[in-house]
What does this fold into?
Amino acid sequence: MQHVVLDTDLAMGAPGSDIDDGFALALALADPGIALDLVTTVAGNTDVQTATTLTLELLHRLGHPEVPVHRGAWTPLLRPAARTGSVPAGTPVRSPRPGPAAVAMVEHVLAHPGEVTVVAIGPLTNVALALRLEPGFAAALGGLVVMGGTFLSPAHDLSTPGEWNVWCDPEAAEVVLGSGVRARWVGLDVTRQVRLDLDAARRMAASERPFLAFAGEFTQAWIAHVGTSWGQDGRSCALHDPLAVAAVTRPDLLTWRAADVVVETGDRLRGAVLAEFLDDAEDPDGAGDGAGGGRGGNAQVAVGVDAAGFARHFEELLARV
It folds into this structure.
């Protein structure tokens, strides 16, 4: 059993917002190999207060109101918040647990050294703060999985040259990359290959199961949004964050390469990552070791994915929700 802290900028449930973080939360709860110990929220897809409210609501909708939620950083380490959001009318506003997310993360990891994997599917602000708060946090981590970065191709977007999570807080990513933690990085190179299509979203929306009906409705809206706003085909959307959760118990679904990774913190190429790959060997079992660096580099980067295998994994876990 893998003990997990999920650090998220969840926005599922808000009109026009991405839905993959909500599916990631559902998969973490449904995976029999994961014990979801704690959820922490961070500003990214939306502001942190909205993310916290929507996370608490989704946990209730999924039948797991007992999972502790701690609200995290309101802004990136050095930069202003990138986006604000809104909570739909009628959404219950519940209170998170007292204490900031980074402190809760540190306390939980130190109480269970070597046993806890942090899965960061939003900007890395909370993780960076935890690393700065407690020198022993890095060594006590059982593992760190990051949904972030584009490693094999440029982003080709002048307004956000880096992948969104890294672009929001590149200084936090720099702290993580320099911490000695050898994280598993699941970037856009692989997450864009795992998709949820419109027909599947429609079937979900027609389901009698509350979460699937809810998720299907918002997935249809999101697919329409990316089709009209981003020039995509309007037939599917990527499942970025669920793939990062899958990497905890199914690292075999991904091909990994050891790398030395740096991030650009200047304005012109803000958030862009550069990776020097060190070898061609897959290392799914060692990819989650807390301490890294040396000949193994500071990261394990996902460079390939078994998209069909992930689709089966995704469907099997959703059947448990």
Q: What stands out?
A: The first strand starts at residue 2 and ends at 8. The chain has twelve helices and eleven strands. Residues 281-294 have pLDDT under 50 and may be disordered. The radius of gyration is 18 Å.
